[in-house]
Amino acid sequence: MVHPEEVDVIVCGGGPAGSVVAGRLAYADPNLKVMLIEGGANNRDDPWVYRPGIYVKNMQRDGINDKATFYVDTMKSSHLRGRQAIVPCANILGGGSSINFQMYTRASASDWDDFKTEGWTAQDLLPLMKRLENYQKPVNNDTHGYDGPIAISNGGQIMPVAQDFLRAAHAIGVPFSDDIQDLNTAHGAEIWAKYINRHTGRRSDAATAYVHSVMDVQTNLYLRTNARVSRVVFEGNKAVGVAYVPSRNRAHAGAVQETIVKARKMVVLSSGTLGTPQILERSGVGNAELLQKLDIKVVSDLPGVGEQYQDHYTTLSIYRVANETITTDDFLRGVKEVQRELFQEWETRPEKARLSSNVIDAGWKIRPTEEELKEMGPEFNELWNQYFKDKPDKPVMFGSIVAGAYADHTLLPPGKYVTMFQYLEYPASRGKIHIQSTSPYVEPFFDSGFMNNKADFAPIRWSYKKTREVARRMDAFRGELTSHHPHFHPGSPAATRDIDIKTAKEIYPDGLTVGIHMGTWHRPGEPYDASKVHEDIKYTAEDDKAIDDWIADHVETTWHSLGTCAMKPREQGGVVDKRLSVFGTENLKCVDLSICPDNLGTNTYSSALLVGEKGADLILEELGLKVRVPHAPVPHAPIPTGKPATQPAR
Ligand SMILES: Cc1cc2nc3c(=O)[nH]c(=O)nc-3n(C[C@H](O)[C@H](O)[C@H](O)COP(=O)(O)OP(=O)(O)OC[C@H]3O[C@@H](n4cnc5c(N)ncnc54)[C@H](O)[C@@H]3O)c2cc1C
């Protein structure tokens, strides 16, 4: 079908928020013509998207995998000891939901209330939180939904180390809960749910749920992929269309070749926190000074565009576990027979398969005790008093356990591992992104801002210690992978200890060097016994410094970008109002996580969907329409047992 040159609404960017808006609008009225323009490829029936267990491959930066765009800090950062941080972002239909780790969490109620915007309190949003969910777990509260397009379950299998983690977490004072995603719990551990449909074993991505579902039953949703939106076309300050270019400029001598599509009613920017501000700036919406330097005609002077970039910060520490532990290491290493077995299992029984999981089966949200706060220094205590103290629903850190090493396995010794992720949920640091050229092919100036506020070190340091205490109390624990821990002084009682001799001998029974004495290179120990661990490790100031250096050297994105087109008053640097309309323009909205004026303590897929649902309601209201529920049936609903799941099926 040749696509029309004019439609009613154009949605730019097919991530979770854009997919919700395009799908909800098109389904609400079959006469409304909606076009969704996505920079990446179509994700439909891509087995490297819908099989949950292979998600780590999406982070390969090998020049072949182009499901992600890698934003790299333009400048070296003194806060990262001279390092440049890298923030991978989705570049595929479905956005982050096609490549993410599928971990299901939700923001705390006070996070939405803190937006201080009419219509956006947690209470206002609760019906929309329920509307989007097809929650497939038993639960004891009334905050989840059961008829929505996005499936949430425990996946095909739960690894035994998850229970080991929960028992150890309980031993250090973090209680078990059946649902810490109830919008209120800020200190507790749980079996961590996933965006996986328990009936099909497939990833629950936003494009399948909201876009393909509608395209299967209606003809008014036009999908254009591999097309990068370069700018919004204005008449005066009214958005009347967009210009897009091929995502790769490998013809026309690299020149920018634009195609224009007209929008009769509205243009919606949903290109994500790092994409949307670039489109705005190329269109003449942003800091007038910057735009004039690039010879861009100013449509609306909004200095807040591209500012206040936020993320969550991840550090990870890797532990050795007993050789009999079930982990994904051999699958990830590429052991042929293991891969064959797991792929075959998925093809025949995807709903119960080991690959129908992200193997991140347990996790926690934690807040420090009064005693722990005393050790966290003045900078964090000041932040605590302002931000956390009176909001008992805000966790300071998240943590989760992966049954395997989240690392390049060619760099690791043989054996089995678990990875402890530590996530800082409300960093005080801020970054920015701005275009450097009018060309959509030129990389922007990017400053992740990671760790540029000193207050962010203490909670990560505290959390590293907490997860280490949990690891030591797990039955499976067999030591620390020293390369993936802080470099403590070898004489310090806090120094890490690698694999014990017994476990090492099981790996290399005929090895001639197992357990040799070689100074500080090896610290083989007596077999570990978790039942004898009662005391926490004590750290000196020098040890804390080693942890802080490790944080600066290794802290990474949690891929939870938000905040660059904030919904707040214009005079405070705001970019959109409470209806998500861009200040100083007409018929132009931003609907994605760039609109968050403050951080959200959650893995952000749920929030992006929610912003999409809210945006869809606001737009439909302006168009005199109403959302139609339930949404169109999601494709790939139960795959008949025994049939290859790669067949297109409804
Ligand atoms: C690797 C990774 C792991 C993650 N893990 C989790 C997790 O386990 N759980 C969780 O809850 N969240 C996770 N997230 C976060 C979550 O996926 C994101 O918060 C969410 O996808 C953000 O949605 P969005 O719609 O705001 O933007 P995005 O998902 O960034 O979508 C923006 C879309 O716009 C497109 N685009 C960009 N520029 C243009 C342009 N100029 N023209 C046209 N299209 C454009 C992009 O290709 C993309 O498809 C993860 C994200 C990543 C990247």
From TrEMBL:
<dbReference type="GO" id="GO:0050660">
    <property type="term" value="F:flavin adenine dinucleotide binding"/>
</dbReference>
<feature type="domain" description="Glucose-methanol-choline oxidoreductase N-terminal">
    <location>
        <begin position="272"/>
        <end position="286"/>
    </location>
</feature>
<feature type="binding site">
    <location>
        <begin position="559"/>
        <end position="560"/>
    </location>
    <ligand>
        <name>FAD</name>
    </ligand>
</feature>
<dbReference type="GO" id="GO:0016614">
    <property type="term" value="F:oxidoreductase activity, acting on CH-OH group of donors"/>
</dbReference>
<dbReference type="Pfam" id="PF00732">
    <property type="entry name" value="GMC_oxred_N"/>
</dbReference>
<dbReference type="Pfam" id="PF05199">
    <property type="entry name" value="GMC_oxred_C"/>
</dbReference>
<comment type="similarity">
    <text>Belongs to the GMC oxidoreductase family.</text>
</comment>
<feature type="binding site">
    <location>
        <position position="229"/>
    </location>
    <ligand>
        <name>FAD</name>
    </ligand>
</feature>
<feature type="domain" description="Glucose-methanol-choline oxidoreductase N-terminal">
    <location>
        <begin position="90"/>
        <end position="113"/>
    </location>
</feature>
<protein>
    <submittedName>
        <fullName>GMC oxidoreductase</fullName>
    </submittedName>
</protein>
<dbReference type="InterPro" id="IPR000172">
    <property type="entry name" value="GMC_OxRdtase_N"/>
</dbReference>
<dbReference type="InterPro" id="IPR036188">
    <property type="entry name" value="FAD/NAD-bd_sf"/>
</dbReference>
<dbReference type="InterPro" id="IPR007867">
    <property type="entry name" value="GMC_OxRtase_C"/>
</dbReference>
<dbReference type="InterPro" id="IPR012132">
    <property type="entry name" value="GMC_OxRdtase"/>
</dbReference>
<keyword id="KW-0274">FAD</keyword>
<keyword id="KW-0285">Flavoprotein</keyword>
